[in-house]
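Project outcomes to date are best conveyed with an example. Our students and postdoctoral researchers have been running inverse folding experiments weekly, and each run begins with a structure described purely in tokens. The record below, which covers 75 residues, was selected by the lab manager from last quarter's runs and is presented without edits.
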């Protein structure tokens, strides 16, 4: 039986849970690239990372302590 690969969101969630700390777009892009995401360019990578961070925050996995900064941490 072949396992389905993780979605970008699932991969990012796993890395965030494993490493903890604070997460911004740059760190999320690096984590996604390490997990196999190959974006067309840096702009696409940033958009994907920000979208996934927002979705993980909506899911309650991470929080954004300062609304003026796009930096997240585990909830």
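After processing, the design step wrote out the following sequence:
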């Amino acid at each position: 039986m072949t396992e389905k690969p993780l979605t970008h969101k699932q991969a990012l969630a796993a890395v965030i849970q494993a490493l903890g700390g604070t997460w911004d777009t740059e760190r999320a892009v690096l984590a996604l690239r390490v997990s196999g995401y190959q974006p067309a360019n840096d702009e696409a990578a940033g958009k994907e990372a920000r979208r996934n961070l927002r979705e993980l925050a909506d899911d309650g996995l991470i929080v954004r302590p300062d609304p003026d900064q796009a930096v997240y941490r585990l909830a």
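The chain has a mean pLDDT of 95. The radius of gyration is 12 Å. The training component of this project remains on track.
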